[in-house]
Amino acid sequence: xxxxxxxxxxxxxxxxxxxxxxxxxxxxxxxxxxxxxxxxxxxxxxxxxxxxxxxxxxxxxxxxxxxxxxxxxxxxxxxxxxxxxxxxxxxxxxxxxxxxxxxxxxxxxxxxxxxxxxxxxxxxxxxxxxxxxxxxxxxxxxxxxxxxxxxxxxxxxxxxxxxxxxxxxxxxxxxxxxxxxxxxxxxxxxxxxxxxxxxxxxxxxxxxxxxxxxxxxxxxxxxxxxxxxxxxxxxxxxxxxxxxxxxxxxxxxxxxxxxxxxxxxxxx
Length: 268
Hints:
- By secondary structure, the chain is α/β, with parallel strands linked by helices.
- It contains 6 helices and 9 strands, in the order αββββαββαβαβαβα.
- It has helices at residues 2-15, 88-100, 160-172, 193-201, 212-220, 245-267, and strands spanning 22-26, 38-44, 62-68, 71-77, 105-114, 124-132, 177-184, 206-208, 224-234.
- Strands 5-8-7-6-9 form a 5-stranded mixed barrel, surrounded by 4 helices.
- Helix 3 crosses helix 6 (245-267).
- The radius of gyration is 17 Å and the shape is globular.
């Protein structure tokens, strides 16, 4: 594993001339943030040694290095999911490579279903914490002390400092944001009404199929994290309707400019 990380990091260093310290992972329908990146180099996943390939519609599958405002960034346009058949080591491999390249701050976004009855479709939810319901833990197996401690602390999985800054940015621009706990599940099915009720009962505010593995590995690696969800459907009794991946993408696209503004200012 250490060899693979080093090999991939060395390959990427040969392709880029900057030294970004901020990483971004963009989820379903949220890839347009990269249009704001200037001076960019785009590297398709399939050309990167040891990298998985994204198979989900709405996930372009490119690593993009450039500037967002005045800051050098490394952005993943499309991520990897457990439901695609990858194991957790594959899903989180890019975060390991980011750390090897010097990334110390990671911003993640996703589309999720809201289970808080006060949420509305199109809301932006700042993630304050998460609940991990994936059956495989990304740190299961041999621990490499070069990558992190055997038993990493998760008491501040999402940086309180970054959360507070995001609140201030949203208030300044009069952008409505909500906050809550993200529940990570395997997918790929959307949830049943009973599952939605369960997620709400255990303390969740939104549910999705990503993010949690990457954030766990980032914390293991000493990378601070910020996460934001676009609420694309509601798992609230009386508001549950049939939902499709295409609709999730459309709603994600419609709210992207607001999320992009928050992310861009937060990074700067």
